[in-house]
Each structure stands twice: as structure tokens, then as C-alpha cells.
Model the fold of this input.
Amino acid sequence: MRLLDAVVQGCLLGGQYALFAAGLSLMFGVLKVVNLAHGDLGILAAFAAIGLAAGAGLPLALAVGVVLVGMLGIGAALHAGLLARTTGALPQISMIATFGLSVVIGNALQEVFSADPRALDLGWFGTAGVSLGGISVGLLPAAVLAVAVLALTGLHLALTRTAFGRRVRATADDPGTAALVGVDARRTYLVVTALAVGLAGLAGVAYAASSLVTPLAGPSRLIFAFEAVVIGGLGSLWGTLLGAMVLGVAQSVGSVVDPSSGVLVGHLVFLMVLATRPAGLLARARVRA
Done:
């Protein structure tokens, strides 16, 4: 029963990782860019929501809505002002640029909010749970998992069933050829980056509602998101969900064996997958498929 509970809690934890990883997977699948500021952008959204809800006194739903819209704008600005200048260049250039952005965001947040950990107060919902066969399931983690599944399902349907998705897949495959049939690659990249950063913002808000956050928590969120993406398969949306579940369960089960080794077990599983299946568990299920 204890092991089963650890698996259930790991799946719930995987929902949080899947939200962080969704935008990272989308950006890599389309732009071939690993955004090293992805985690910090999520933490930026978390502190923005906390500031608007607790500091400015806005209703929680309105604060979250304002933050998510703002993150879409930040994503568009990120591409127009930074990533567009590195498109087509060596991948190391965009990684260096986003690493610099990560450093700036983390230190700016620490300057404004100090190093004190904070959280987004959801009232009773934040701690409520139900018992299923002796296993406690928190309502908030379950909601986060549901949102992650809905977000990934929505992305999959948008990319496979809509005209926008056809433009995205064409641009991801060959932007030069896509341009010959009237697809504006720069506009497509901008929209995809905005969506990816919006997803990072949603993940950051969910993280702040689930636990305490600090201004320098971005890199750790990035590592977990990156591991989930690599385990599942770079550019694969369903692989991202699977990878997040595998990582969450590995950490949770590892914590049962040794409370101090949960994160380490997750890293070891990541390395094992990287060594045995470097393309990921669902390598063929690409965004552009």
C-alpha cells in the first residue's frame, strides 16, 4: 500500500512537471531552441501572481488571468527581441542568450521580493483532499495534473487538426519550403514562443499554489522539465507527459526508500534512459508528426 501510494503521489507530481515541460517541448519541437530561461519565466509568473493577489489585493482568478495574458506578451517580446536574432544561428547562441535572461530574471526577482519563500494562497482548496482506498489524493495536485493533460491534449489537437497546426508543422519541418507556400515563419515562431512562455507561466502559478517558491527556483524547475522532455523524447508532446510521470514516480518511490534521495533517484532514471534510449521513450511521436 505504501508503494502504491508513492506511485499515485508520483503521478500527481508528474502533472506539475508536465506543465513546466510542455512549453519547453513545444519550443524545441518547432524552433529547435532549448530555452534555459524557461523555469525562471515560470517563477516570474508565480511571483507576479503572488504580488497581484496578496500585494495589490486583486481576486485570485483575475490576478492569474492578468499574469497569463502578460506571459503571452512576454513570450512574444522574447522572440521578437531576442530569439529572432538567433534563429538559424548555432544552437549555442540561443542557449547563451536565454541563460543570460535566466540570470537577469532570477536576480531581479530576488532584488524585488527578497530571498524569502512565498506561496499563492488558495484557501481550503490548497490543502483539501480525498481518500481513495486508503490513499490520500490532494485536490490541488489532481487539478494540476488534469490541467496538464488538458493543455497537452489541446496542443496536440491544435497542431494536428487546425490550419495553424499545419503551418507550425510545416515551419518546424522546413521553414524555407513553408515560406514558398505563404507561411510566415517569423510570425509562426513568435506565436509558438508566446504559447510556450504562457504555458511556463501557468506552470509557475500552479507551482506557487502547491508549494513555497523562491526567486532562484527557476533552474531547478528547468532541470526537472528538461529531464521529463528528454525521457519522453524531444519534441514529443505525449512523450513529455510520459516522461513527467516517469520522473515524478521515480522521485516519489525513491523518497519512500530514502527520504533524502528522491530527487537523486529521478536523476538516475534520467541518466539510465539517456544511456539506453537517448532519443527518448516515445522518440517517434514528434510534434511535427
